[in-house]
Description:
Order of helices and strands: HHEEEHH
Low-confidence stretches: none
Number of strands: 3
Mean pLDDT: 92
Largest sheet: 3 strands, antiparallel
Strand content: 15-25%
Amino acid sequence: MLKEKIFNKNNIRNYGMEVKNSYLTPDSIECMSIKTRKSILEKLESYNDTDIVVVVVTGDLVEDGVELYGIYLEEEVSEKSCWHSWGMPTGRAKSMMKEGKYIEADEYWKVQG
């Protein structure tokens, strides 16, 4: 079940900024609608939690402004592309979508044991 969240533009460092193509950040997750998070979560369900994926988003850093651009397996992303460094375990991306907040890598691994 996805957690609802209250939108507060004061929590967003770069409010109103266009993100073009970006990886998941605290600001981009804060600016996603529950509909977008649900859509991303549904797409992530087709991957194993241990698969490394690159979740690319686009839009504006305003309420409900950030949308999914695409989800790619790490192997599909060119090593010469800046996207290559954006990979994360699918389980971590799923947790972010469910919680509606950014989860640092070390925090995710502590929970996973």
